[in-house]
Amino acid sequence: FWLKMQRTRKRGQDLTFLVDEVLSASGGVLPWRDLRDAVVARARELPRVHRNEFLEETALASIPVEYLSHDDDLVRLPGSHCKRRVNFATSSYSGSASRSASAVEVSCSAPSAEDVRVRELNTEKSFATALQRAGSALVVVDFSATWCQACQALRPELRHLAGELCEVVFLEVDVDKIHTVANQFSVKTMPTFIFFRLGERIGSYEGNDVDQLALEIETL
């Protein structure tokens, strides 16, 4: 992927501004294929850009080199704390020891408060746009309210969880500001968390136990 991007860097229109926009809406990190597809989808909404026959290559070429890593296929905004950890297990065969990858997972170092973002949404349009731009990433939507004491008490823990789960997009909906969205998904109690992928609802959790929320997310 890295070499392909280098070969196509000078072709076509610069879409770096869309790369930043999509990454910001997705928590700062995405697999390069998901990022490419999301940038292409956004670019097709722009005047004249949709006629570019090399749009996928242009999207790849617009990813800044400093956003890339030789260690994995994730694209990160500068300042993202996401990193890939590979665990190896030692096994023996015919008397000789060999290393084989037993687990590959994405993890994060502890982020500072200003680096963690749970995006707050204020309109129906921003909600729909955020789901669309998330692509195939898992989206966790927190339905809460300023007067909900349990919601406010959970906020610091939720932001810490968002910092740990690098590839999950966290959104916050104030039910008083976007009550139509809350009604659409039959939100009756708070906090309520609804999970989406590819714009479709795939699960939910009601409660303020952040550990249970993390377990629910892990099953998706």
**Helices and strands, in N-to-C order?**
HHEHHEEEEHEHEHEEH
Number of strands: 9
Largest sheet: 5 strands, mixed
User: How many H/I helices?
Assistant: 8
Low-confidence stretches: 1-12, 83-116
Shape: globular
Major beta sheet, strand line-up:
5-7-6-8-9
Mean pLDDT: 75
The separation of the N and C termini measures: 27 Å
CATH topology of the largest domain: Glutaredoxin
Computed over alpha carbons, the radius of gyration is 20 Å
Going by helix content, strand content and strand pairing, the class is: alpha/beta
Number of discrete domains = 2
Describe this structure in words.
The protein is α/β, with parallel strands linked by helices. It has two domains: 1-76; 118-219, 3-Layer(aba) Sandwich (Glutaredoxin). The chain contains eight helices and nine strands. The protein has helices at residues 2-8, 16-25, 32-43, 55-61, 124-133, 149-164, 179-184, 210-218; strands at 29-31, 74-76, 82-93, 96-108, 119-121, 139-144, 169-174, 192-197, 200-206. It has a five-stranded mixed β-sheet with strand order 5-7-6-8-9, with helices on both faces. The chain has a two-stranded antiparallel sheet with strand order 1-2. The two termini are 27 Å apart. The model is unreliable at 1-12 and 83-116 (pLDDT under 50).
